[in-house]
Amino acid sequence: MDEKKLAIIATKGTLDWGYPPFILASTAAALGYSVEIFFTFYGLQLLKKNLSHLRVSPLGNPAMPMPVPMPTLMMVLPG
Q1: 62 lies in a domain?
Q2: pLDDT tens, position by position, 1-41
Q3: How confident is the model at residue 55, as a pLDDT?
Q4: Long-range contacts of 17-24 (CB under 8 A, 24+ apart)
Q5: Residue 63 located in a structural domain
Q6: What b/e readout covers 53-68, taking b as 16+ CB neighbours within 10 angstroms?
Q7: 32 neighbors 4 (Cβ within 8 angstroms)
Q8: 13 lies in some domain
Q9: DSSP readout, 50-65?
Q10: Which of 2, 16, 17, 32 gives a 20 to 30 Å CA spacing to 48?
């Protein structure tokens, strides 16, 4: 019989985007799937031992540092 496989991509290093790949992977593993998670560059923040630096962000991807600090109001405006 064919082995069931699942691949998940973790794209962002924030708590709100970090929990779903791990929850889906553990659920699929419990159901007998062979699971792999691929972490993009920004998703690598989820693999650190000390997760105190992670937070929920309403604005974009906080793992991507801006070269010049921008006010929060500027980041909310589209374009």
Answers
A1: no
A2: 588 999 999 888 777 778 889 899 999 999 999 999 998 88
A3: 66
A4: 18/43, 18/45, 18/46, 18/54, 21/46, 22/46
A5: no
A6: ebeeeeeeebbeeeee
A7: yes
A8: yes
A9: --TT----SSS-TTS-
A10: 32
Confidence band for 76, pLDDT divided at 50, 70 and 90: low
* pTM of the predicted protein model: 0.64
At position 61, the amino acid (one-letter code) is N
CA dist 49 and 57 (Å) reads 20
Tokens for 70, please give them.
């921008």
Which amino acid appears at position 41 of this protein? F
Per-residue confidence (pLDDT) for residue 40, from 0 to 100: 87
- Residue 27: domain span: 1-52
Q: Does 59 reside within a domain?
A: no
Number of structural domains found in the chain: 1
Using CA atoms, how far apart are residues 18 and 54, in angstroms rounded to an integer?
9
